[in-house]
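Entry for CU-O-CU linkage complex. Fields follow.
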Amino acid sequence: MFDFVQSALTRRSFMLGAGGLAATATLPYATYGAKSPAELNLTAAPARWPLVGKPHPATDVWAYETRIPGPAIRLQQGEPVRITVKNELPEDTTVHWHGTRLPNAMDGVPGLTQKPIKPGESFTYEFTPPDAGTFWYHPHADSLRQLGRGLAGALIVEEREPVAVDRDVLWVLTDWRLTSDAQIASGFGNAMDAGMAGRIGNTVTLNGAISTDETVRAGERVRLRLVNAALARIMALQFEGHRPLVVAIDGQPCDPHRPEGDRVLLGPAMRVDVVLDMQGEPGHRYRVVDDFYEGRSYWLTRLAYEQKAPIRISPLDAPLALPANPLPQPDLASAERHELRLQGGMMGGGMMSGRMMGGGMMGGMGMDMPGMSHRAVWAINGQSMTGDGHAGMPPLLTVRRGCSVALTIVNETAWWHPMHLHGHSFRILKRNGSSIPHNLWGDTVLVPPKERVEVAFVADNPGDWMIHCHITDHQVSGLMAIIRIA
Ligand code: C2O
Ligand code: CU
């Protein structure tokens, strides 16, 4: 269940989590060097994990390798890997390697790209990550419950040349709806969550625990990899006394820039890599605040400076830009243009705290396919795919392989939607008609209520690819479709 390579990885992610000060380049990235392809095992099984900490009991979760989050898998750009997933859950599962451009058969969508992995069975995923960056993995079967019970982990693909930072730090952020005895609340997929903001929880963990302090050293430069692994919670992080520079979104490098209002916006499934120069005072603590939902801000943790002299006085003088990934540039002049209209949900609202106004649920939208447990309350261009999707669902779009595709995502609803495309990264071009600066790419784009966002990509990866909202309640209740590349 736990092979040697795996435990070396786990130990390393632990060191990082504990705030060890080893320089990036000296960490044992070479674990995989001995063997090509790298071999990993990942078992999904019920487990218990101390999410909240004493005096509360441990939480019954579903976990990879018995831990929350699952082990941080570190791969080398351009090096093949084989990951054998064993299913010890009481139901079917699959693993989706979110954001990784890989062959369709390895994409982990049950019924569409593979047979589900039955309890007691295994499946070996084989792929070669073309892009360096911060990605993640999670199930794509019974997504709401499986992700909501804890199945998720980071997938980090190392740059070929190490990046000049003092530390590479990973924060996997997870949101849980817990009962007072620290157990996962029931009620997955209820109509309120489905038609509104999704299953937003009451407990946000950082690397699997509630965090009050993350130790930092004055003067150091940290590459902080933020992963929003929540089912539904959108986050907007502010680092008191600090100015994060965004250097990558969804694993893909961008022009280093200060985010609007110095708030790092992270929809579910999104990753943002920031560079933080720790210019605070030794011995001081600075809060990291998430204030996305009006009137519901909280602090996630604090940057807790060690009582030690700064390791340098002025910020490290090294380039901030990450090396580019080999992404094909869409040709906007010749691109096929399509509109995806996001529809449905309860009316009004917008913010979680917003009142429901007027009409309530939009009924009877799209087709409610037989054998699906989730009601369709959302649609894309009038069509609703619910649950995990299923084989034989007609694609919403069919595109010839190699074409450039420009998608305008029009959010006609009163709710935010982080829209995710499988198998590709897209350029994020425009918001409400105006160009977006900083050369942004992504695999998940957050579309605010009543706004429109334009993205473009080269359809170079053949197969049937999911496109869906990553607020999991929305995904399973209709905000999902297929793009076929043939
Ligand atoms: Cu993160 Cu369809 O997935
Ligand atoms: Cu949504």
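NOTE: Residues 96, 98, 138, 140, 269, 420, 422, 466, 468, 470 surround CU-O-CU linkage (ligand 1) (CB under 6 Å).
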